[in-house]
Amino acid sequence: MFLIVTKPRGSFCGAAAARQASAYSVHSGDLCVILGDQLSRRSPLLERADRAADVIWMAEVSEESTHVPSHKARTALFLSAMRHHAEWLRAAGWTVDYRRLDDPSNRGALGEELREAIRRHRPRRVLVLEAGEWRVERRIESVCREENIELMWLEDPHFYASREDFRRDARGRRQLRMEFFYREMRRRHGVLMEGNRPAGGQWNFDAENREAFPARGPGAVPAPRRFPPDAVTAEVLKLVERYFPQNPGSLRHFDWPVTPEQASEALGDFIEDRLPLFGRFQDAMWTGEPLLYHSRLSAAMNLKLLEAREAVAAAERAWRSGHAPLAATEGFIRQILGWREYVRGVYWLWMPDYLQWNHLEADNPLPRFYWTGQTEMRCLREAITQTLELGYAHHIQRLMVTGLFALLAGVEPRQIHEWYLAIYVDAVEWVELPNVLGMSQFADGGRMASKPYAASGKYIARMSNYCRHCRFDPAKAAGEKACPFTTLYWEFLMRNESRLKRVPRMEMQLRNLVRLGPDEKRAIRARAETILGEVC
Ligand code: FAD
Ligand code: SF4
C-alpha cells in the first residue's frame, strides 16, 4: 500500500493502522529521511523517531549539484553541514545511514539512493519533513509509491506560517500582498508589537531605510565573523573540486557557518556589529564591499542551522535594549517574518505552474557573462565577480543589478531562474523561484509584487559608486556611451507598453515615455538591438 500522510505538528494518529497494512513490516523501525536543508537539531522528525528502532538516512548525490550547475561553494556548504549534522546525530545515539558522494556504489540521484535504502532497510514507513523543492517531494513520493511503502510527511515548524495556513489565508483573495501578510504575522506572533499596535506606531520604516553612502563611501564596515574550514570542511572542499571541476564558482574564500553553534555566533556578530546600520544602508551598494551591513544569515537559516525565530527574537531584543534603532530592526524583521515567509507561501501555492509563467513573453537567452563576470558594465562585473568568488551578493545586487538587467534584456525567466538557483549558497527553490520569477522578472504578471522593479542606470548611479568607474554614462540612453541599463529601460517600456498599462503603479514611468520623440525612440531601439546582439 502507498499512503501519503501529512500530519500537523503534534499529531500522529492513524499511524498504527497504516503500520499494520504496510507491505514491508519485517523491520520494526522507520526510515527517517533528512534532506540537505533540514539540519535542525530540533527537527520534529527527531522528536518523533525512536533512537532504538529507527534509522536516519542522509545522502550526498551529484544530481543536486548538476541539475543546475551549482556553485562549488553551495555544494560544499550543503555537504559540510550535512556531515557535521550526521556526526552530531551519531554522537547523540542515532543510527545514521549516510551515503557519501564518493561511495563507489553511489548512484548519484536522490530517488535511486532512496529506493536502494528502502530495499536494504525494509522499514515500516518512510518519514520526511516537508522538502524545500516541489521536484524533490514528487520524487520521494514516486519512489515510495513504486516501492509500495507508506510515506509520512511532517510539517516543518521552522517557518512561522505553515503551507496550509498560507493557503487558507490566501483563499478567495484577488490579490496577495506581502505588506498585509506581514502585518498579520506581526500581530499573530506578537513581534514588534505594543499591545495591538505596531511598535513606534508604524508598520513600515522603508522611507528611513533607503540611504546611499556619501561620496567618500561607507568608511570602515565591521568585518563579519568568519569560519575557516575545519577538517570535515577541508575534506569536502577537495571532494567538490574533484567531482565538480567544471561547476562555477571558487572555494578560495569558503568561510560559511556549517554548524548550529557557528550559525548562532554569526547571528550574534551581526546583531552586535551590523544590525544598527542595517536598515539605513539596506539598499546601498559599493565597489569592493560585498556585504556592507547585511547579515549573511540566509544560508544558515535555509539549511535550518539557525532558526528564523531566533534571528527575529535577537533583533527585537537588540531594539528593546536600546542597541539598535527601531527602523533597522523593523527592516531586518520584515525580511524574515515578511518576505521570507511570504515567498515560501506563494511558492507552494502556485507550484508547479509557477515554473512556466512568462507574463512578458521574454525569450532572450541568458547573456554569457553571467557565468564569467566578463563585461564592461561595471555594476554587473562587480556583482557577478563577487558572486563567483563568494556565492553571495546582497539583495539589491540581486534585484537591481543582475535581476534588473535580465528583466530589461528580456531574458527567458526559466534561464535566469536556473542561474540564480545555481549560483548562490543560499539558493533553495522555495525562496529563489518567487524572488526571481515574481519579484525580479515580473513573470507572474504581478501576482506577487505590485509592479516590475524596472529602473534605468540612474538608480544604480544613485545607490552605488559603480558608475564612477564605468565606461558608460547612466544618464545617456542612446549612442556609444549610453548605459545599457538606461537604453534597455526605455526599450523595455516601449516593448511592454500595452501590458504595463494595466499595472497601476507603472503609470508614472509610462507617462515619461510620451516625452520621447520618434527620433529618440528610433535611436534607443537601434542601440538596444546592438547591446542585445553583443551580450546574448
Ligand atoms: P539580509 O539582507 O541580511 O536579510 C536578512 C534575511 O532576510 C536574509 O538572511 C533572508 O533570510 C531574509 N530575506 C531578505 N530578503 C528576502 C527575500 N526577498 N526573500 C526571502 N528572504 C529574504 N534568498 C535566499 O535565501 N535564497 C535565494 O536563493 C534567493 N534568491 C534571490 C534571488 C533574487 C533575484 C532576489 C531579488 C532575492 C533573492 N533572495 C534569496 C532574497 C535575498 O536577496 C537574500 O535572502 C539575501 O540577499 C541574503 O543575504 P543576507 O542573509 O545577508 O540577507
Ligand atoms: Fe552599470 Fe550603467 Fe552604471 Fe555602468 S553606467 S555601472 S552599466 S548602471
Would you kindly provide a brief summary of this structure?
The chain is mostly helical and about 525 residues long. About 45% of the residues lie in helices and about 5% in strands. Helix 2 (about 45-50) links the parallel strand 2 (about 30-35) and strand 3 (about 55-60).
Q: What features would you describe in this structure?
A:
- There is one protein chain.
- The chain has 536 residues and is mostly helical.
- The protein is built from 23 helices and 8 strands.
- It has helices at residues 15-21, 44-48, 63-66, 72-91, 110-121, 134-146, 163-170, 178-189, 231-243, 260-273, 275-278, 298-302, 308-320, 326-350, 378-390, 395-409, 413-423, 429-440, 457-463, 484-495, 497-500, 507-513, 518-535, and strands spanning 4-7, 31-33, 55-59, 95-99, 125-129, 150-154, 193-194, 197-198.
- It has a 6-stranded parallel β-sheet with strand order 1-6-5-2-3-4, sandwiched between helices. A two-stranded antiparallel ribbon has the order 7-8.
- It is globular, with a radius of gyration of 24 Å.
- The model is unreliable at 6-26 (pLDDT under 50).
- Bound molecules: flavin-adenine dinucleotide (FAD) and iron/sulfur cluster.
